[in-house]
Specification:
Blueprint lengths: L13 H10 L4 H13 L1 H19 L8 H12 L5 H4 L2 H24 L9 E6 L7 E7 L4 E8 L6 E8 L6 E5 L5 E5 L2 H8 L3 E8 L12 E6 L1 E2 L1
Antiparallel strand pairs: 1-2, 1-9, 2-3, 3-6, 4-5, 4-7, 7-8
């Protein structure tokens, strides 16, 4: 297989299916199938548990983010604000004023998107399942656009002696761009250079090739591509 081939990943095997369920990259119907199998198939449920444990080091690289304190304060005001006096509820002026305020608020709500269009936030977390027909090499990939970091989880397939796996980004018909040699191990992380970040955030194709130890000597893939897949938003 070459980088020009576009056969897509081979989607087979309970091990990869369980891994994709844990990572959250399955389509809705496939996720429903997996959920039913977890309840009915003890062996598949154990695979899911194993992948949750296996992928937890990747999640540990991304610190938890607490919501701003103003969110809690706003909830407290809304939930626990003092109730108005009984006389206020029976006041006709109060209800008329409330109705007028509601109408004004609705008008502002309708007009606001046109006056100040909402900012569309880029996807901050993208995932990909890398595999290829005829190859036993499989990786799960998570790209964090905030940390500019790619986390890889090695599902299956071993590199030959004296060889390395190298990760590439493919954008249309442009020449592949190296994202670095993939370190050996169950999980690995690669820092992404600035020139590649914007293209990755838009959702690119990733591919893994077999290269001499230390990576491609030419800056382009020299060995076969053993896994590929599209980055998609979670």
């Amino acid at each position: 297989m070459t980088l020009a081939d576009d056969n897509g990943p081979e989607r087979g095997g309970d091990d990869l299916f369980a891994a994709e369920y844990v990572l959250g990259v399955l389509a809705a119907d496939e996720r429903e199938i997996a959920s039913r199998r977890i309840d009915a198939d003890a062996a598949f449920a154990r695979l899911v548990d194993a992948w949750e444990a296996h992928l937890s080091p990747m999640a540990a690289a991304y610190p938890e983010t607490e919501p701003p304190i103003r969110v809690k304060e706003a909830l407290d005001r809304r939930l626990f604000a003092a109730e108005p006096r009984a006389g206020l509820w029976s006041s006709l002026g109060f209800w008329r004023g409330l109705a007028a305020a509601a109408i004004a608020a609705l008008a502002i709500y309708i007009a606001l998107p046109y006056v100040n269009p909402p900012v569309v936030e880029p996807q901050t977390r993208l995932v990909a399942s890398l595999a290829a027909e005829g190859s036993d090499v499989k990786y799960l990939v998570v790209y964090d656009a905030v940390r500019h970091d790619v986390g890889l989880s090695h599902v299956s397939g071993e590199r030959a002696a004296g060889k390395d796996f190298e990760l590439w980004m493919i954008e249309g018909k442009n020449a592949p761009v190296s994202m670095g040699v993939i370190p050996a191990g169950a999980t690995a992380h690669l820092a992404i250079p600035p020139a590649v970040r914007e293209k990755l955030a838009q959702g690119a194709v990733l591919a893994v090739s077999v290269e001499p130890a230390g990576g491609s000597p030419t800056g382009q893939p020299t060995g076969p591509v053993v896994a590929a897949g599209d980055l998609k938003s979670i």
